[in-house]
Design a protein that fits this description.
Order of helices and strands: HEEEHHHEHEHEHEHEEEHHHEEEHEEEH
Number of strands: 16
Strand content: 15-25%
CATH architecture of the largest domain: 3-Layer(aba) Sandwich
Structural class: alpha/beta
Largest sheet: 7 strands, mixed
CATH class of the largest domain: Alpha Beta
Length: 448
């Protein structure tokens, strides 16, 4: 292994506090709870983390896409502190409180489309997706759900079923939920139809029409749930016609079009929601992650007639729309109103993409660079012609990176995609420092 880059903190020395905490983690936390970096945070600000032994890390993971506004944004912290002094919890189903309805108002007005909309709040993205399916079924009177290969929607029984990857998300977890159907995504780098865009005629989107004739009749399909940009599945950006074609098919067949924006929302792609790039107006949008700047919160926003379909008491949860999380989310939406975060996301995306493309020219390990806004990734392959996934090499790059002070995340069904979810408050100097570390790791692992 090469020596750490100049100025980067070595993590090979004895780390008493980290070792003690790792021993506790090993003793009391199940092995199935995974960790990317064997370190424990002590403080974090912006796009930087300090651990309990004083090591500095540049954060290109953003808490798994949760920290678009960075670690501990001052206005959010102050809003949470003020709310905590008033009340911590009331359960909206027992005693209502203003932050819930104010946030529902903001989300309903901010999401695409000028039609009447309503919003319910949940604890997480998976809960949001589950409830999107529930309202779709109640509204249509149908049960089937269509999802996509490479998609990720959560870890509950239904959302685990909807998720495409078997290991580690489904393996060994028993019987899955019924009435879930899967079709190909527009993954042009690995076209499921063995074609190339645009010569393909968008066969992947047109296949949905065929699917409704051969596998699942429209009279039994309640909803189509799709990530406008695939997240965990590898930051896959579809061609511009893909989402509009699917949306048109849904409209003709009374199928609710649900955009899962849990990872792609709140500025990550240079818009409030990634679906806005396509011009499609979803019937329902699910959101979470960066909605509350690090506090647990999800949301389902949809057409009023769809959201009102379940009976009274059919939607809810004890902690859904917790007051602290709502206070944080209101400040997040305030921060997004002037558009500066979106502009910065596009600047970051261009800077990261340009640099990764330069790396690709020098290193054959990089098969493709892709993304939208600041949602950018590189797919690593051991052979550019066969596109054989470089899973082991990807793991080595990520390990070497955190040893040199950079936190990265993998993605993709083949675990061979390195994605960037850096907070959108990172300045150019910090970005370049992180990209320098990334390139140094690519050089060590992949060579020229």
């Amino acid at each position: 292994m090469a020596e750490p880059t100049a100025g980067a903190a070595s993590v090979t020395a004895e780390l008493p506090r980290t070792e003690a905490l790792l021993a506790l983690r090993e003793r009391y936390v199940p092995r199935g709870v995974f960790n990317v970096v064997p370190a424990f945070m002590e403080s974090a600000q912006g796009a930087e983390i300090r651990d309990v032994d004083g090591r500095r890390f540049i954060d290109f993971a953003g808490g798994l896409g949760v920290l678009n506004l960075g670690h501990t944004p001052r206005e959010v912290v102050e809003a949470v502190q003020a709310q905590a002094e008033q009340y911590l919890h009331g359960c909206f189903h027992v005693t209502m409180y203003e932050p819930y309805v104010r946030l529902a108002e903001k989300l309903s007005n901010a999401t695409p489309g000028d039609h009447p909309k309503k919003t319910m709040l949940t604890n997480s993205g998976a809960e949001a997706v589950e409830n999107a399916v529930k309202v779709s079924r109640a509204y249509t009177g149908k049960r089937g759900v269509v999802v996509f290969e490479y998609g990720f929607h959560g870890r509950t029984l239904l959302t685990m079923t909807m998720t495409s990857k078997v290991k580690p998300y489904k393996f060994g977890f028993g019987t899955l939920a019924p009435d879930v159907h899967r079709i190909p995504y527009a993954y042009c780098y690995r076209c499921p139809f063995g074609s190339t865009y645009p010569k393909c005629g968008l066969a992947c989107a047109e296949y949905f029409e065929t699917f409704l004739q051969t596998h699942a009749d429209p009279e039994e399909v309640a909803a189509l749930v799709i990530e406008p940009v695939v997240g965990e599945g590898g930051f896959i950006v579809p061609p511009p016609e893909f989402l509009p074609t699917l949306s048109d098919i849904c409209k003709r067949n009374n199928i609710v079009f649900v955009a899962d924006e849990v990872q792609s929302g709140f500025g990550r792609t240079g818009r409030l929601f990634a679906v806005e790039h396509s011009g499609v107006i979803p019937d329902v949008i699910t959101s979470a992650k960066s909605l509350a700047a690090g506090l647990p919160l999800g949301a389902v926003t949809g057409r009023t007639e769809i959201m009102d379909a379940p009976m009274v008491g059919g939607l809810g949860g004890t902690y859904g729309g917790n007051p602290l999380s709502c206070a944080a989310a209101l400040k997040v939406l305030d921060a997004l109103e002037d558009g500066s975060v979106y502009a910065r996301a596009n600047e970051i995306g261009k800077r990261v993409t340009d640099r990764m493309l330069q790396m690709q020219e020098k290193h054959r390990l990089i098969g493709e660079v892709r993304g939208q806004g600041a949602m950018v990734a590189m797919e690593l392959v051991s052979d550019r012609e066969t596109k054989a996934p470089a899973k082991a090499e990807t793991a080595r790059v990520i390990k070497l990176a955190w040893e040199r002070g950079l936190i990265l995340l993998k993605a993709g069904v083949h675990d061979n995609v390195i994605r960037v979810l850096v907070p959108l408050v990172a300045d150019d100097a910090l970005l370049d420092e992180g990209l320098d570390i990334l390139e140094s790791c690519i050089e060590v692992v992949g060579g020229a």
